[in-house]
Amino acid sequence: AYTTSAWGSYKGSFRLPVQLLNGTLSLQDANGNGYLQFSVDEYKRPRFHVSLADPAVALALNDTVRVKGEALSFGGHGIGNGRVAYRIVRKTYFPIWRDAGDFLPRRPQPLTASREIAHGVTNTDDQGAFVVSFRAIPDAGVRREDEPVFYFEVEASVTDLNGETQLAERTFPVSYQRFFLNIELPASLPADSLRHIRFKTENLYGNPLSRKVAFKLTPLQKPNRSYRERHWQAPDRFLYDEQSYHAQFPLDLYDREDNPYFWKKDSVILEMEDSTKADGYWEPPIALKKGWYLI
């Protein structure tokens, strides 16, 4: 029961029974003619959304990173004085050293665990904006030579004055390398189809960069005989020397004669230097005879 105020109004609250099904429910004043219908759904339509922006400058390890965020209603106005709880977790990844037909040796990848490096609470301003700051600390247990990429996962949840909470997440990669160079060239193709070698430079976000590129082209000395396909892994110890082995098994591989990564190199036949364009690409013209080459 509720008592009306001097103006004849009253207010109150109640908890919905948990055993009821979702749908349309009604509320009626037992002493008057007041009647109201309302809907109860499993999903509550959000009143606002949270977003995190990319940093304005390139990130470097050990820098203090300032991530700007905002909480806006779907009508466009800011959610002021909202409580922002944030958490930053660092994860470590390593380049995928692919084998071009098992030509390149694989690098063992160190085992690393994710780690929380910062957490805290702040508030939105009158426009719904807020800033999350943290230091991009690398994992001291990972060698720089392994070329790790550290991903800092930022999670920010905003709770407005009505108690509604919305979440935003963003991942920021940071590495010892400021950019990467890719060679867009298949492992093999017909000699008369090769007209260009395509280089691309891009940052950790995949955005193109203009950078100076120098490359050399070196022919490889292919073995002068053919071998049968190996049906087992290459040995790491040998009972015979190579000459004695081939005397008994002339068609079988002794060590890694089929692996171009270990073939001898000839003299450099082409050497060029230029810069990739604004789109990150450089395509120097080239014409080669059939064979194996090292770029």
Key features of this structure:
15 strands, 3-stranded antiparallel beta sheet, 295 residues, 2% helix, 4-stranded antiparallel beta sheet, mainly beta
Would you give an account of this structure?
The protein is mostly beta strands. Helix content is 2%, strand content 35%. It has a 4-stranded antiparallel β-sheet with strand order 6-5-8-9, with no helix packed on it. Strands 3-4-7 form a 3-stranded antiparallel β-sheet, with no helix packed on it. Strands 10-11-14 form a 3-stranded antiparallel β-sheet, with no helix packed on it. It starts with 22 loop residues before the first strand and ends with a strand. The mean pLDDT is 85.
Question: Uncertain spans, ≥5 residues at pLDDT below 50?
Answer: none
Helix content: under 10%
Global outline: elongated
For the termini, the CA-CA separation is 85 Å
Q: Which range does the strand content fall in?
A: 35-45%
Major beta sheet, strand line-up: 6-5-8-9
Identify the quaternary structure here.
Answer: single chain
How many β-strand stretches?
15
Largest sheet report: 4 strands, antiparallel
Class inferred from helices and paired strands: mainly beta
How large is the count of helical segments? 1
Mean pLDDT: 85
* SSE arrangement, N to C: EEEEEEEEEEEEHEEE
**CA-based gyration radius:** 32 Å
